[in-house]
Amino acid sequence: MDLTQQDSSFRKFISRDLTDILVRLALVGFLVIASLKIFTPFMGIMLWALILAVTLFPMHQKLAAKLDGKQGRAATLLVIAGILVLGGPTVMLGGSLADYVQQTHTSIKDDSFSIRKPPESVAQWPLIGKKVHSAWQQAATDLPRFIKKHKEQLTNASKSFLGFASGFISGLLQFVFSMVIAGIMMAWGKEGSDSLLKISYRLAGLKKGASLHKLSTATIRSVSLGVIGVAVIQAILIGVGLILIDFPAAGLMALVMLILGIAQLPALLISIPAIIFLWYTGDSSVYNIVMTVYLFLAGLADNVLKPILLGRGVDAPMPVVLIGALGGMVSAGLLGLFIGAVFLSLAYVIFMTWVDDGLLEMKAQENQLGTE
Questions:
Q1: Whose CB among 123, 209, 241, 252 lies 3.0–4.6 Å from 201's, allowing a Cys bridge?
Q2: What average pLDDT is seen over the chain?
Q3: Cα(125)–Cα(264) distance, rounded to whole angstroms?
Q4: What's the CA angle centered on 226, arms 347 and 356, to 5 degrees?
Q5: Using the 8-state DSSP alphabet, how is residue 116 labeled?
């Protein structure tokens, strides 16, 4: 066989293999795109369900051990308890918000809506005091003119509020469905965990795959408890306190508190104005003193809970987890809170492992040169 025939055979071989590779890649790409398109409508619910399942799985295992290892029954009880525990305060705060909206609507319809005049101390607030006092005074003395003057801003604010309210309601419904799916995942949690562990092994090897699997699980649980959990606890505590002192729009302020907590802003931004309102509208009774202490301590609860819950069991430092959570939330909303924390923690651990491995190799080379 001469060189020309050999070259022709080689080209046919390469052409056939290249065609096979391209066909396989096209089929794989088609399957991936089709699967993503089919799965996209359920992506949010399934990710939330996975996060809830990972977070609650240790509690599920303890409950299952007390029920003679019955995984399904333990998952069912945990799902019902979770919906009741979070649903009760949510319904109470939501009822307060609905009552406030209804009363406001009725008073506006009957032309009896009025705004209390601002105290003179408002004008002494730094930077914004005079502007806030002036706008508040105009709204209290001539509300129709104030509405006409700020119609565009009020319209945009009302649209934003309605959009937020509808998003919050849909989020609650999504949470209920996610909780049910999380219960199904927990019932088969061991099998699912083994499958994810095998994927980690395949992607990163036996040693690093196990550590990355452990890090991902620990990060999700840490963010769930340290960020979302603390924000929910504070929103409930402060929301209940606002209801007890008859604070206007207590349910709405509880929602604001939840958003501030997730955004890592201090809860004192809500509790201190509530304390001021309590003393401005009441007297120096024992009840006011007790509620002042309660609201102040509720506003500081995150300073105690966050160091305990955030970053626990995670190899990455707490600032890395927190930066990832905040950056993910800014980029992708509430779900990005978890995704950002997991990705940034994984990136940090992988980078530091690469650095440590390089240092070990350099030390080994130095020791070898020293012995020679």
A1: 209
A2: 75
A3: 24
A4: 25
A5: P
Distance (Å, rounded) from C-alpha 129 to C-alpha 183? 51
Q: Could you tell me if 234 and 302 are in contact, meaning their C-beta atoms sit under 8 angstroms apart?
A: yes
How far is residue 79's CA from residue 316's CA, in Å, rounded to a whole number? 30
Q: Two tokens at 271? A: 């509790």
Q: What is residue 247's three-state secondary structure? A: coil
Return the closest-CA partner of residue 178 out of 342, 339, 335: 335
pLDDT > 90: percent of the chain = 1
- Please say whether the beta carbons of 338 and 220 come within 8 A: yes
Q: How far is CA 133 from CA 42, 120, 124, 130, 152, in A?
A: 48, 8, 9, 5, 20
**How far is it, in rounded angstroms, from Cα 16 to Cα 22?**
10
Positive or negative CA dihedral for 130, 132, 135, 139? negative
At position 83, the amino acid (one-letter code) is I
- Helices 318-371 and 250-262 pack at an angle, to 10 degrees, of 10
Joined together, the tokens standing for residue 344 give 């940034």
Element counts in the chain: helices (H) and strands (E):
13, 0
Q: Tell me the per-residue pLDDT of 208-222, one tens digit each, with 9 for 90 and over.
A: 777 777 777 777 777
| Contact (Cβ atoms closer than 8 angstroms) between residue 117 and residue 135 | no
Alpha-carbon distance of 305 to 308, in angstroms, equals: 5
